[in-house]
Amino acid sequence: MTETRPFLRGVAEGLPFILIMVPFGLLFGVLASEAGLPVTQVIAFSVIVIAGAAQFTAVQLMVDQVPAIIVVLSALAVNLRMVMYSASIVPHLGAAPMWQRGLIAYLLVDQTYALAAAAYERERTWSVADRVRYFAGTAAPVFPAWVGGTWAGAALGARVPASWPLDFALPLCFLALVGPLLKSRAHVAAAFVSVVMVLALWWVPWGLGLIFAALAAMAVGAEVERRT
């Protein structure tokens, strides 16, 4: 029982995200279907990329017939946070076997990272194996909920009533994740700059304002961290 406890705890703490991930996936599936992607491609998109924000960005730009290079660069820019996530958890999981680190990298998303980072700070006595088990537990409900929601949205397509407020899932998901992580001046400064810059650069075409805002937020956060 001792060996499975971190895994079961991860599952228990990941389960509430189903309430967000399913409508999140439904919304993406519907939008991708309306953009002309067949169900198989929509599912492959979610299984391979596993990055909702980047996927929404890419699909919207594709609908707007933006050049492919801009679509790719915008999606990569949105996912730059994964680099920071990876660097953050290396001290906790860096000693795990290569194949486990590969799976962790594949399943590293906002939800699994937020849960794991918080748990690793609290449970200082956990072994590397315990940390891996916990991470696997958090991914157990999150990944199927995302892929399943995507499949349902793509299969239903335009048959999903417009009155269903599925778009609430995207901002709610990130508010739930970001709020508890704003623990330092650097975090708050980066979040504030990102919001201000996104609003100020709404007019920049092709969604490039999001890239500029992300770069500015990271620079400000890093500078505040250096000074404090």
From TrEMBL:
Keywords: Cell membrane, Membrane, Transmembrane, Transmembrane helix, Transport. The chain crosses the membrane at residues 12-33, 39-59, 66-83, 103-120, 132-156, 162-182, 189-222. It comes from the Bacteria. This is Inner membrane protein YgaZ. It is a multi-pass membrane protein. It comes from Jannaschia seosinensis. It is found in: Cell membrane. InterPro entries: Brnchd-chn_aa_trnsp_permease.
